[in-house]
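Lab channel / #folding
Pinned by the channel admin:
"Please post every new chain as: sequence first, then the structure tokens as a reply. Keep commentary short and put observations after the output so the thread stays searchable."

First post following the new format, from NK:
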Amino acid sequence: MPISRALFTFRKQLVGGLLALLLSVPGQGAFAQEPDVRVPNFWDPKAVHDRPTSIPDRIQFLAIDRYPPFVFRDPQGRLTGFNVDLARALCQELGSSCALRLKLFDVLIKALDEEEGDAIIAGLSRNRPGAGQLNFTEDYLKLPARFVVLTDDLESFDEQALGGRKIAVEAGSRFEAFAERFFPDAETVDFETAQDARDALKAGEVDAHFGDGLSLSFWLPSEAAENCCSFAGGPWLEPGYFDEGMAIATRADDPERAAALTYALRQLHQKGIYRELYLRYFPQSFY
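Reply from TO:
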């Protein structure tokens, strides 16, 4: 059955060693200039948005540590990452002073409620218990599921014609559930971990692996992949599987701050700043 293709879900687990890989990418910290890199766009370029009348003087962000490439420590121990630089850029756009406080993930909502901070920037799910009453900005990142195949098989792979193909997936994952439902003519082969599924592809035991695009974008250029594989086809979206993205959360009684941050996110996109940040931390696009 036809499936809409677009940008979609967030998944927090990254492959082991991602931090070391990110720091070892040549030019990381400089903006990539490859003309064929696909940068996501979540905002209508023709829409006109007025600057909110209520702009916060200060924004205290709440985040979690050791969450590369969103928040992590560089070799000098300095806090960096996509979320860190995004928070800073949002404050600069709004003309607000900015601070970031690190908390354990499980206490983020409590810390926000107790006014230890003003906004959570940590990939907090809208479906997480206690999050239902929070205000959320528009999504600033959606992380797609992708196919990867052996590079030698790239030209012959057709994601719309998977009959008889062996597709490796992580057992019990949303990727397995999605593949079994929407690729019924393919043979879904489940593995205990995503890494086992990737290894099976690398060894030629399966025709493709269907999994988390973000993690795969760091695996593909890694030593572990040994230049075996490439992305194939486009990013996939299906409500109920991959339709939740990353957004910033504020307290229920603070909708003005969420509105101001949403405005700033749109401005960063229009000015090209979002693109620069994306290319800085995701040198191989997962779209």
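NK: The radius of gyration is 20 Å.
TO: also worth noting, The first strand starts at residue 58 and ends at 63.
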